[in-house]
Amino acid sequence: MTGNRNTHTPAGLTDMLVEESETKFEIETSAREVFAHHGYHVVQPPTFEYYDVYDAAVTKAENMFKFFDSNGRMLALRPDLTTSVARMAATKPLGELPYRIAYSGSAFRNDEAFSNARQREFSQVGIELIGNGGAEADAEVIEIAIEALLKFGVKEFQIDIGQVDFYKGLAELAGLDDTASDELRGKINDKDFVAIEALLAEMSISDELKAVFLELPKMFGGIEVVKTAAENPILCGKSKAALENLAQVYDILRDKGLEKYLAVDLGMVPNLDYYTGIIVKGFAKGVAFPVCSGGRYDNLTEKFGRRLPATGIAIGIERVMTALSENVGGEDKAESEYITVALAKGRLAELSVGIFEKLGFDVAELKSKTRKLIFTDEKNKFKFILVKASDVPVYVEYGAADIGIVGKDTLLESGKDVYEILDLGFGKCKMAVAGPAELKGRLDGRNIMRVASKYPRIARDYFHRVKGQTVDIIKLNGSVELGPLVGLSEVIVDIVESGKTLRENGLEVLEDICELSARLVVNRVSLKMHRERILKLMTDIKAELERERS
User: Fold this and answer.
1) Which of 72, 234, 375, 503 has the fewest Cβ atoms within 10 Å of its own Cβ atom?
2) Distance between CA 186 and CA 83 in Å, rounded?
3) E strand spans, 368-524
4) What is the rounded distance in angstroms from the CA atom of residue 14 to the CA atom of residue 348?
5) pTM (2 decimals)?
């Protein structure tokens, strides 16, 4: 940022001008009308509280805005409103149970994802139903969320529902400890098929259970997903009960005529310490991130001294506004039938095009000498766009492309929020720490080290999180091998293929960080909206790659 800071807002914050402010006010007003119609009463929690209120709830400590009061006590801007409402419900007289509470306000998060892709300050409207542990309560908050979205004018959306106890039951059956269970859960929630296979390969569990875990990320669709899962004889009581609960909630909403807005996702398993049952996420066409989210959290109020069953849902106002702007003028239905694939220019695009050609896609124009950037396969209803490699995750995360093919190094460095569903196997190499031979085996225990890299995020994550070392990361764009040779850095973090360049400059690999190759990534909303076509493409590509290897 250049110029006078007084004329700019901080990163992740924005001015909302007249037209946008009026739209926001209309959404908040409509939400309050819907909530009041169902007997929900508005409360207003404080903008900041003691840090301990939020500690160990939903948001990591490093992702909160923290500061101190005059007595030296740590405070935090609220990262969500649900936690504050739970504190109120546990400590204040709010009438007879169950409490039906509504709210509207801003929340604040300081994590990197929000500063880059989303706002650090964001507005929410929401409801919490506290004191009722039944399926009827879960169905009630979902019904109200659907009614609110329709009243806002959102035309195309889908509410996904899952159940965390289905996964918990499987993890218990597998005998996974908390660390292993949480690591696997995170990969399943991210639909990172590549990492799931790698983790399961290291686990001593039955092939039957491995098969269920492998299938879990693909277990989303209609209510038939629940019925199919329930037929598996390996399931334990907890998993079976979770499916029964999910079916109950679904049936209640179906009887109210809301089935067309519903989908099931058994692979949706976010924070298990927070959620205790049903989980909900809402996706709208044209919005790259969920427009609403929530679920059951029966353990939260106990943190404040009173255990009460609770369920709720929050709707992101800015994301609703994005959905409404996408609806302006309506979208050409024929245009919406296309799936867009972002390809990294260069060798990676050539290899990717070769795969699509073998699968019967029309890529003739893509292979021609042209300066065009968008190519269409009318028969299969696919579009291909050529972009810079580092931009592929950006196009996919924001939904400008449904699918992308990009190197794992680019994915790690971007930190973008996309599903990584397939390792394509080509472009294999590794990310490594390299430096003078005399440092081999001597990296651990060094308190200060300068590291040069084109990949500062990967380097920082490896040294700070994995090795627990404090290092100075120096970002370079050119030949990083020069760093140790001229004293700019002690070591480098870079991609290594043959290692020839390192050897010619008197350097060698000191430590491997990770294996790299091309990956197929998918936008989170697109995978929901185009489930069958995207999963078929994944299956077809995987089969073609296996055929080539055999």
Assistant:
1) 72
2) 22
3) 374-377, 382-387, 403-407, 419-423, 429-436, 450-453, 472-475, 491-496, 507-516, 518-522
4) 37
5) 0.83
Which tens digit of pLDDT belongs to each residue from 199-244?
Answer: 999 999 999 999 999 999 889 889 999 999 999 999 999 999 999 9
Task: Write down the pLDDT at residue 72.
Answer: 95
Q: Burial code of 326-349, b = ≥16 C-beta within 10 A, e = fewer? A: bbeeeeeeeeeebbbbbbbeeebb
Pairing, β 472-475 against β 450-453: parallel
In a domain, 148, yes or no: yes
d(CA 134, CA 310): 10
72 Rama sector, left if φ>0, alpha if ψ -120 to 50, beta otherwise: left
Q: Is residue 218 part of a domain?
A: yes
Q: Single out the residue of 298, 296, 258, 297 nearest to residue 278, CA to CA.
A: 296
Whether residue 399 has pLDDT greater than 80: yes
Same domain (yes/no): 239, 258? yes
Q: Residue 487: which domain range?
A: 429-516
Co-location of 41 and 188 in the same domain: no
Does 530 map to a domain? yes
pLDDT in tens, 137-175: 999 999 999 999 999 999 889 999 999 999 999 999 999
Q: What is the CATH number of the domain that holds 537?
A: 3.40.190.10
